[in-house]
Write a structure and sequence with these properties.
Layout: E1 2-6, H1 14-23, E2 28-34, E3 53-58, E4 62-67, H2 71-82, E5 89-96, H3 103-106, H4 108-118, E6 123-128, H5 136-153, E7 164-169, E8 180-182, E9 191-198, E10 204-211, H6 221-226, E11 230-235, H7 245-249
Parallel strand pairs: 1-2, 1-5, 2-4, 5-6, 6-7, 8-11
Antiparallel strand pairs: 3-4, 7-11, 9-10
Helix pairs in contact: 1-5, 2-4
This protein binds manganese (II) ion.
The site of manganese (II) ion has 6 residues, from strand 5.
């Protein structure tokens, strides 16, 4: 099996090399990842400047392509140009921090996996919740076992339907994880605010701070993570709210040809 591995924390991030070391038990792993930290870059891509690519040797573990671009760029470029063969699987992570709830929308980690799904490959995003110690090695073992099971027994969607999985591992202290849950994405607003300070030359500057104040609704990724469970969420990149197609079509729309 051919696996494309990427992330949003940069090609030298400890979460990526930990996942690399486990994924090689599943197949041949190629790495194309941003050359700098690209967290919270969402599904941005680079269109107005060329993408600079350098081959790097990281952590005495792998040779990979360091791309001066966004996580989604890495997947598009790797599949389109860099890889000799199309991958059988795209994996993004392990992110330094959970990607649950609405953070799924901001996440470069999830976006890279979504790009893999758009291109037609089974794709997985893996993230580890912040904690006192970040045990990426154990999180990588957990994620790789889940990926293996998913590929073997899998959810059998038709080819091209975009099989996209979001895996979050709780911080691995105090006996966690307590188990596995499959859950939907929480939609709670995060409890965030901007901290104001004076920057150089007296310029006002604002730093975003905060996280979810609650533990989310039952059966959501946020609740499962807060409860200390590994949580798996099936995602799709079709943002259409299908149940509103009918009511929206029935609206009394103006004749746009007359405007
Ligand atoms: Mn990140």
């Amino acid at each position: 099996m051919r696996i494309l591995l990427t992330n949003d924390d940069g090609i030298l991030a400890p979460g990526l090399v930990a996942l690399y070391r486990e994924l090689v038990t599943l197949g041949q792993v190629s790495v194309a990842a941003p050359d700098t930290v690209q967290s919270a870059s969402g599904h941005a891509i680079t269109i107005n400047t060329p993408l600079m690519v350098k081959k790097v040797h990281a952590h005495d573990a792998f040779h990979g392509w360091a791309v001066a671009g966004r996580p989604a760029d890495c997947v598009k470029l790797a599949v389109g140009e860099l890889l000799e063969h199309p991958p059988d699987l795209v994996v993004s992570g392990i992110n330094d921090g959970a990607n649950v709830g609405i953070n799924v929308l901001y996440s470069g980690t999830v976006a890279a996996a979504a790009e893999g799904a758009i291109l037609g490959f089974p794709s997985v995003a893996v993230s580890l919740e912040w904690g006192d110690e970040m045990n990426f090695d154990r999180a990588a073992r957990i994620a790789t076992r889940l990926i293996r099971s998913w590929l073997e027994t899998g959810d059998r969607l038709p080819e091209g339907a975009g099989r996209l999985l979001n895996i979050n591992v709780p911080s691995l202290t105090n006996g966690r994880p307590f188990g596995l849950r499959v859950a939907s994405q929480a939609v709670d607003k995060a409890d965030e605010r901007y901290e104001h300070s004076q920057g150089p030359g007296g310029v006002s500057q604002y730093s975003l701070t905060g996280w979810h104040s609650g533990t989310g609704q039952p059966d959501t990724d946020l609740r499962a993570l807060c409860d200390g469970y590994v949580v798996v969420t099936p995602l799709h990149f079709d943002l259409t709210e299908r149940r509103r197609l009918g009511t929206l079509s029935a609206c009394d729309w103006p004749d746009v040809t007359k405007a």
